[in-house]
Specification:
With 495 residues, this protein is mainly alpha-helical. Helix content is 74%, strand content 0%. The chain contains 25 helices and no strands.
Length: 495
């Protein structure tokens, strides 16, 4: 609630008060410089205010790897609230102080919070989850992003805070989820995998497993983690450069880069840009559009929840490939509808259906599964670096869309949707040939599936088989691990 919810909330909260904030920029400039500001300058300041969120996100993605390595997953999420509270205070009191720069600075700091959250939260969830519910629990990240977007839309209505005198409250509310997280998260254990593999604290890891699983016998879970530990006994936490040089993880890295790039470049931002115009074309009044727009947020939530319910049955691969494929299909239909909408009224209503279908297709698969995959296909020592790479690609793509989309839209008009259809189709094709199914599989099984995409030295293949391609500790491993908890220390075993 204090992490991915805030990211989604900050994506949508700036839409409703746009007119009032631009007016505040103008008034603040006149007080500071005793002269009026041009309309182009106001637009430029507002564009900076919106896009600087992505720059802050990139900074957050860059600092998350050393943060989770030094502080741990839980403490990083706790400390991240400092950014959220600071940003909320800056933006909420900007009007009172009469300084428009406080909003720009606040958006940048809020972006740092989002950059840390979207890496540290999926990492924490993937490490505390049994593999049977790893996908469902990982989808919580996407679900709460959608809930955050919807909440921003609701609170921005004119009857609530979408008024000139009340818009600062939209930013002040950011403090509430942060305080909830500060109050609750300290009572949850740290990631047991982090405690066991990186801190070598067996007693704390055992206690954390017992708390999360609700039972005292956690020997199987300890043994399963130790199996991975044996493979990486002498391997320290990898840096981004070390991970990029690891030839055995080449296809995993390409998969994360492709999914995260398509996550931002698939055209969902274009949908938000065109929503009001399409609703106007369908004959809706300007007063009704904000309320009808709520339907898009509701569809997002329902689709994300549906994905969370079926992901452990259907699997990651079908949802991800199917989501991108359906988006490409509906983008093509939407292009036809918007090009020919003056020839038939029913095409305007079909455009609305296509918008909702694109949003639902995105939230069913591409909206959350990339975060789940990043935590599943990399070992403990490489996971922080992998999330850092994913975060960098995510935020760079986000910034690229914000920077390039106005030019694409101006040049191609409604045909810009065909560009996004091509991106979605390319992503689906790549994943069809490269991505194996990771549902209910151990890291050894996932690595073995990726190994088929490249030539792997015989020694690595033998190692994969020795360390349990079936995901179950061997008899030798079970006998070895039975004494690993003695005196609270993990005793070395050579396989």
């Amino acid at each position: 609630f204090g992490s991915s919810f805030l990211y989604g909330y900050n994506l949508s909260v700036v839409n409703a008060p746009t007119v009032f904030i631009k007016k505040f920029y103008n008034e603040s400039w006149e007080r500071s410089y005793n002269q009026s500001i041009t309309e182009q300058s106001v637009t430029l300041l507002w564009t900076i205010s919106v896009s600087i969120f992505a720059i802050g996100g990139l900074v957050g993605a860059l600092i998350v790897t050393p943060a989770v390595k030094y502080f741990g997953r839980k403490r990083t999420l706790l400390l991240n609230n400092i950014f959220a509270i600071t940003a909320a205070l800056l933006m909420a009191f900007s009007q009172l102080a009469g300084i428009f720069g406080m909003i720009i600075l606040g958006r940048f700091i809020m972006g740092i919070d989002g950059g840390v959250s979207l890496s540290a939260l999926p990492m924490y969830l993937s490490e505390i989850s049994p593999k049977q519910i790893r996908g469902s629990l990982g989808q919580i990240t996407a679900i709460l992003i959608c809930v955050g977007v919807f909440t921003g839309q609701v609170l921005g209505l004119p009857e609530i805070f979408g008024k000139e005198s009340l818009w600062p409250y939209l930013f002040g509310i950011i403090i509430v989820p942060s305080l909830v997280q500060i109050g609750v998260l300290p009572f949850l254990p740290e990631s047991p995998r982090f405690l066991l593999l990186e801190k070598h604290d067996t007693k704390a890891a055992e206690k954390a497993f017992q708390t999360f699983l609700g039972r005292t016998d956690v020997s199987y879970e300890i043994a399963e983690v130790l199996e991975e530990s044996r493979v990486q006994r002498n391997i320290q936490v990898a840096s981004v450069f070390q991970l990029l040089r690891d030839c055995s993880k080449r296809w995993q890295i390409l998969t994360i880069i492709a999914t995260m790039a398509c996550y931002q470049l698939c055209g969902l931002n274009a949908i938000w840009f065109y929503t009001n115009d399409i609703f106007k074309g369908a004959g809706l009044s300007q007063e009704m559009i904000p309320y009808v727009t709520l339907s898009t947020g509701a569809v997002e939530i329902l689709a994300a929840v549906f994905s969370g319910l079926v992901i452990e049955r259907v699997g990651r691969r079908p949802l991800l490939i199917g989501g991108f494929s359906l988006m490409a299909l509906f983008f093509i239909i939407l292009t036809v509808c918007m090009t020919l909408q003056n020839q038939a009224i029913w095409l305007r209503y079909l455009s609305i259906v296509c918008i909702l279908a694109i949003i639902a297709s995105f939230c069913t698969g591409p909206g959350g599964i990339p975060f789940v995959l990043t935590g599943e296909i990399f070992p403990q020592s490489q996971r922080p670096a992998a999330f850092m790479i994913a975060g960098i690609i995510n935020w760079l793509s986000n910034f690229a869309v914000g920077l390039l989309f106005p030019f694409i839209q101006k040049a191609l008009q409604t045909y810009c949707f065909l560009v996004f259809a091509a991106v979605c189709l390319a992503g689906a094709t790549f994943l069809f040939f490269v991505l194996p199914e990771t549902k209910n599989k151990t890291l050894a099984e996932i690595n073995l599936a990726f190994d088929k995409k490249k030539k792997v030295p015989l020694e690595l293949r033998e190692m994969d088989h020795q360390f349990g391609a079936k995901g179950k500790p061997s008899e030798e491993h079970e006998s070895n691990s039975s004494s690993t908890l003695e005196n609270g220390k993990v005793k070395s075993r050579v396989v």
